[in-house]
Please model this.
Amino acid sequence: MNSISVARIVKTSIVSAFTLTAAFIWRDVIIDAIELYFPTSTIFYEFLAAIVVTIFVIIAIYITLKTESEAEHLFKKYQNFYKSEKVEKKLKKKKKR
Model:
C-alpha cells in the first residue's frame, strides 16, 4: 500500500467537501421535485428517492473502487516491467564491456 502523505489527505478532503456540497444541492432538488410532482403523501416518494439514490451511490462507489484497484494493478505491472527493462539494459551494457 502507498504511504500516506499530507498532499493526498488534503486532496481527498477537498474532493469530499465538494462531493458533500453537491449532495446537499441534489437533496434540495430531489425534495422540491417530489413536492412538485407528488404533492400528496410525499413521505413515500422521499423513501423511494432515498432508496434509488442509495442504490445509485453504491453502484458508483463499487465502480470507482474497482477501477482504482485495476489502475493500481496496471501501474504496478508497468512499473515492474520498466524496472526489469532497466535491469536488462544495464546487463547488456556490462556484457559489452
The two ends are 39 Å apart (CA to CA). The mean pLDDT is 77. The chain is about 90% helix and 0% strand. Helices lie at 6-37, 42-96.
